[in-house]
Design a protein that fits this description.
Layout: H1 7-12, H2 17-26, H3 38-51, H4 56-65, H5 81-90, H6 94-103, E1 110-120, E2 129-131, E3 134-144, E4 149-157, E5 176-179, H7 186-194, E6 198-202, E7 209-215, E8 223-231, H8 236-239, E9 244-250, E10 257-262, H9 269-277, H10 280-292, H11 303-326, H12 333-343, H13 350-369
């Protein structure tokens, strides 16, 4: 079925084209557009992400070199850097935000919430005020901890405190949200509790509380204490008027001690600690996306252009994760991206591309073990 189609065309076929058109129509994205449609813009920016292009000129030259194959990849014509720059400046970024969110369809119960700051040059991005001589924006992300796919993203000014994003997230009853102590705000945590959403959050050192009951603790597994508590601070006791669970855990591997708060009293204390340790998945996500997707070097300086590029980068990340899941690939997302960056315009079935990689890798490893040559 994929014979004669480029790898890029096969990759794009996993995207819901009709849903993309609905996102475009929602914001009149193709109004007065004659040639370079929103779909062309998305394909061009996705190509830039997958092949790690560094500039608009870089994108234009590379696509020109593959001119004969562009039509078979879904492009309707040649791509000019001025046209792409104008599209990034003027096409509503919410088109690509909505489309990225539509790709995320996960039935999950555990998420990690955190934020990272993307530094910007204040002279080039004067709207992104952060510090006196430094600009930046903040990427707030709710990550499904098992698939490492973001299910909620908000892009705000860097000065916005992390905890404010709790006002923007729709609560999901029965799910767990794992957070660091930057999100300790008992009024907002109580709203999550009322919405039947569970949370696991690291407590601040100055937490004032009264112990109501101590539960049995498996100290051999690292559980130092498992308590039912009530907040004792004059404000916190009013903001969160019901009981909390306090779990103290010392990691046998790192000897780090954590004090965690949760509103779930049914799961084992070790599971509470285990959920919090999954929070590091989001740190790895931030590190990965900054290293391997084009969000540290932007193709435009307006807030619309920056948000467009970030949301398309997120869509590409989710697309690669979808490919990995549907094809049953055991490769890392980094390895998949590296393979795609070199094979986008080859006319090879997608599964064969990754099968060839595994075969070549295993052969090289076997030859190296036989000491036939060094690699």
């Amino acid at each position: 079925m994929n014979q004669g189609r480029t790898v890029f065309a096969q990759l794009i076929s996993f995207l819901p084209y009709n849903e993309f058109n609905r996102c475009v129509a929602r914001y009149d994205g193709n109004k007065r557009v004659r040639q370079f449609s929103c779909w062309d813009q998305f394909l061009t920016m996705a190509f830039a992400q997958l092949t790690c292009r560094e500039s608009l000129r870089d994108i234009e030259v590379c696509l020109q070199a593959q001119g004969r194959k562009l039509y078979h990849c879904g492009f309707h014509g040649p791509v000019r850097r001025s046209t792409l720059a104008d599209a990034n400046e003027t096409r509503d970024w919410r088109i690509y935000a909505d489309f990225a969110q539509s790709l995320i369809q996960i039935d999950a119960t555990a998420y990690a919430l955190d934020a990272t700051t993307i530094d910007l040059c204040l002279s080039l991005f004067p709207w992104a005020k952060f510090r006196r001589r430094k600009g930046g924006i903040k990427l707030h992300t709710l990550l499904e901890i098992h698939s490492t796919i973001p299910v909620f993203i908000a892009i705000t000014e860097a000065l916005l405190h992390d905890v404010n994003v709790l006002d923007l997230m729709p609560p999901q009853p029965g799910s767990f949200i794992v957070m660091d102590r930057a999100y300790v705000d008992f009024a907002r945590l109580y709203q999550l509790h009322l919405a039947l959403t569970f949370f696991v959050i690291r407590a601040k050192d100055n937490l004032s509380f009264r112990r109501r009951y101590s539960h049995p603790a498996d100290r051999r597994a690292g559980i130092r204490s498992d308590q039912t508590i009530a907040l004792a601070g004059p404000k916190s006791s009013l903001l969160y008027p019901t009981a909390l669970r306090r779990v103290s855990f010392r990691s046998p591997e790192t000897d780090q001690q954590l004090v965690l708060l949760t509103n779930n009293f049914s799961i084992p204390a070790l599971s509470v600690a285990g959920l919090y340790r999954y929070r590091w998945q989001i740190e790895l996500f931030f590190k990965w996306i900054k290293q391997h997707l084009r969000i540290k070097r932007f193709f435009g300086t307006s807030i619309n252009s920056v948000k467009t590029q970030i949301w398309i980068a997120v869509a590409v990340y989710v697309l690669v994760a979808i490919i990995k899941q549907r094809l049953g690939l055991g490769l890392s997302l980094y390895t998949i991206l590296q393979i795609l960056s070199l094979t986008l315009f080859e006319k090879t079935p997608l599964l064969q591309v990754f099968a060839d990689f595994n075969y070549n890798f295993e052969m090289l490893d076997h030859l190296n073990q036989l000491k036939l040559f060094d690699i």
